Amino acid sequence: MRVLHFFKAYLPESMGGIEQVIYQLCQSGSSQGIEHEVLTLSAHPEPAEIMVGNHKVHRARLDLQVASTGLSLSVFSRFRELAEKADIINFHFPWPFMDVVYFASGIRKPIVVTYHSDIVRQKILLRLYKPLMHLFLRRADRIVVASPNYLETSDVLQAYRDKTVVIPYGLDKSSYPEPSEGCLSAWEKRFGRRFFLFVGVMRYYKGLHILLEAAQGTDYPVVIVGAGPLERELREQAVALGLENVHFLGSLGDEDKVALLQLCLAIVFPSHLRSEAFGISLLEGAMYGKPMISSEIGTGTSYINIHGETGLVVPPSDPPAFREAMRTLWESPEITREMGLKASQRYEQLFTAAQMGRQMAALYRELLQASPQSVG
């Protein structure tokens, strides 16, 4: 079986959560007898085909970027060519230009739409896009969402509940590097083993300004890994608040990131808007057996982190509540240890890449059985 994934960005150029989900799905597919390929846009598309892990990635030139929507002329022909050879096309939503490419192609293969997030910020774009969006979602044979929480709170998905299935995102722990003793020792020497860790891109919905306010007036070490458009603003806020206990490390390689995940006391994840539909770095914390602090925003973050079980969930945009949750974990080592253990167990039960791969493979096969003429 051949499955073509289509999304605006992908590894190795772009390292976001959706890209990680696609990667894990493609990697796990080979054991299910599935040949995954990815079509994406790139500002530097030469070579046009590369291997990432065990799967082929096709890159069309990115010509223009408008409101976070990549546009490309050459991708129309590339998509039609690759879609003709595929048995299933797996689109990754949202990306309005993707819908245009699909309808222009005239291809009528079974399609799966992995619904990663509602369109939250671009309100004007959404008003213009809505008719096309609903036409596209009606055409989908199945819509996949990563948590029951998101399905229940998405106004868009209410119209498609009959064909929407919940398949949680999964990670393969063995695909993460094991830090060397030297790497672990260096970070432990710098921060010890009692610090709060945030990992992620510094975007508007990540709520890092809330974390900084929560850290004010405490001496809890807070380590922030990542970069992004708000980095300068956040560093200035930390200086203004006099936060000597907050450490910005910028972007780090996977070995360093894993070392910090292994060493930290807990994961802090202050995302406060629905743009945070799941939280891959939150799931990484669970994978490494760390308790979590997150906010209740009606999305998959509260499917990963169960309040009072795997960590603590507080109201969004509430620095005092976030600070109190940090105090609870800092002062209660037994509770912290037990929550970390339960976080690891929940990861093993629900969120491994192998489980995601099996469930997606079963979905693909179901569609092919319903449309046997589409098999190439």
Write the layout of secondary structure elements.
Layout: E1 2-6, H1 17-29, E2 35-42, E3 49-52, E4 55-61, E5 64-66, E6 69-71, H2 75-85, E7 88-93, H3 96-105, E8 111-115, H4 123-139, E9 142-145, H5 148-153, E10 164-166, H6 181-191, E11 196-199, H7 208-215, E12 222-225, H8 231-241, E13 246-250, H9 254-263, E14 266-269, H10 280-287, E15 292-295, H11 301-304, E16 311-314, H12 319-331, H13 333-350, H14 353-370
Parallel strand pairs: 1-2, 1-7, 2-4, 7-8, 8-9, 9-10, 11-12, 11-14, 12-13, 14-15, 15-16
Antiparallel strand pairs: 3-4, 5-6
Description:
The protein has about 375 residues and is of the alpha/beta class. It has two domains: about 1-170 and about 350-375, Rossmann fold, CATH 3.40.50; about 175-350, Glycogen Phosphorylase B (Rossmann fold, 3-Layer(aba) Sandwich). The chain has helices at about 15-30, 75-85, 95-105, 125-140, 150-155, 180-190, 210-215, 230-240, 255-265, 280-285, 300-305, 320-330, 335-350, 355-370, and strands spanning about 1-5, 35-40, 50, 55-60, 65, 70, 90-95, 110-115, 140-145, 165, 195-200, 220-225, 245-250, 265-270, 290-295, 310-315. It has an eight-stranded mixed sheet, sandwiched between helices. Strands 13-12-11-14-15-16 form a six-stranded parallel sheet, sandwiched between helices. α7 (about 210-215) links the parallel β11 (about 195-200) and β12. The longest helix has 18 residues, at about 335-350. The radius of gyration is 21 Å and the shape is globular. The model has no long low-confidence stretch (mean pLDDT about 95).
